[in-house]
Amino acid sequence: MMDLNFKSDISDKYTSKSQIARILTEKWMQENAYCLSCGNSHLSAFENNRPVADYFCSNCNEEYELKSKIGTKTGSKIVDGAYSTMIERVSSNNNPNLFFMNYCNIDWKVNSLMIIPKYYFIEDIIEKRKPLSISAKRAGWVGCNINISKIPEVGKIYLIKDSVVINKNETQEKWQQTCFLKLETIEARGWLLDLMRCIETIPNSTFTLAQVYSFERYLQQAHPSNNHIKDKIRQQLQNLRDKGVIGFLGGGKYIKNLCTRQKKQLALAFSSEATPQSRYRRLQRFFAEVVFNYDHIAQPIMSLFDFEARVATTLL
User: Is 175's pLDDT higher than 90?
Assistant: First the structure.
């Protein structure tokens, strides 16, 4: 079980707040963080000042980098290092997975810990900052921000959220859900991530091909060299379906796929001798074929609250 508290006594000999934070967060990661790729319960630290990663898994060699800041909210952007270095890393796939930690520097404890798998990093999310002024020590140096608002929510995996530790099996399941992306080319990943982000903005759990087509202009601007956007949308929807990210219900209808745990809970809520997977497939077919009249559904619900009487009382 993760301990949210830092061992603040190990930093007693330091006076710099930044040094204290570095010592405490690094020690905490070594004792509490784990590898989401293989489940190894321990991460090893690289030597100091390594330019790319901070930690590695001795079992599967997966590499990780840690960014941290004071507070409770991650925000939409993460400040990173040199812009040119980051672009080079993203373009060559030579980038580690990114841990991002929020912590409190009063009682020294972790508020949240999120990881973004490395295959979610594409050039589109790296923002170039203004060069440092001529009066700065590193005049002309250009840094960057990582705009995580452009990353689909499925790519933001919390190990700790709002000071609550998330079950390890759940975090690893989320990690495995989109591991197929690391086998895709950078261009293909860009298309898939853009489409996944579009689908996430659709409020319902089910959606139609026509709804996805409504993002045609946005996708055309994001991929100006492609002159067959609708064809590409259908191709990528099929790709996401084959990878289990979405489900195809037939008749131009799709469903945002639930995680394995949610599918099992939903399927087991219905009595049947069939396997949970078969029960879930039956539910998919049912919702694909049935059209609900929400006006009829709303009538008995509204009658329970006697809104007409309440309105009359209010007017008096």
Answer: yes
